[in-house]
Specification:
14 strands, mainly beta, four-stranded antiparallel sheet
Length: 143
Amino acid sequence: MINGSVTMLREHQGTVSVAGTLTVGMHPGWLAVDRRNGLVYVANQDSNSISILRGASVVRTIHIDFSPYLPAVNPATHVVTVTTDSSTIYVLHGTKLVERLQLPSPGFYSQFDQTTRRDFINFGSGRVAVLQAPARPRITLER
């Protein structure tokens, strides 16, 4: 990933080739893949947006209020959490922004736990937020 673009690769019978280059937002720093629905989520730090890709196309760009970091996909529910450089966590489902949640301080990263089926968001000071994503996502704090 370089400024404003993502290079898509294709693997066929052990050979990797370039499938195409897509224009996304500025400074696409991190991405996450939901393999079951074929979507790729790209966090564009300098344009405060999340690009959603399918195949060789950008299917949607969601503009948010703060620089996004480290999207994480829950493969069981297809819920995507995106931490930011603020205390806002954005929750997406497929190509839709479904919720904006507030933490007491900025979240550093999010990780889905296959065993407990919850997302854990580390926001420093030895504290972790737990995102439970039923029909309506909610956050609880744990030490």
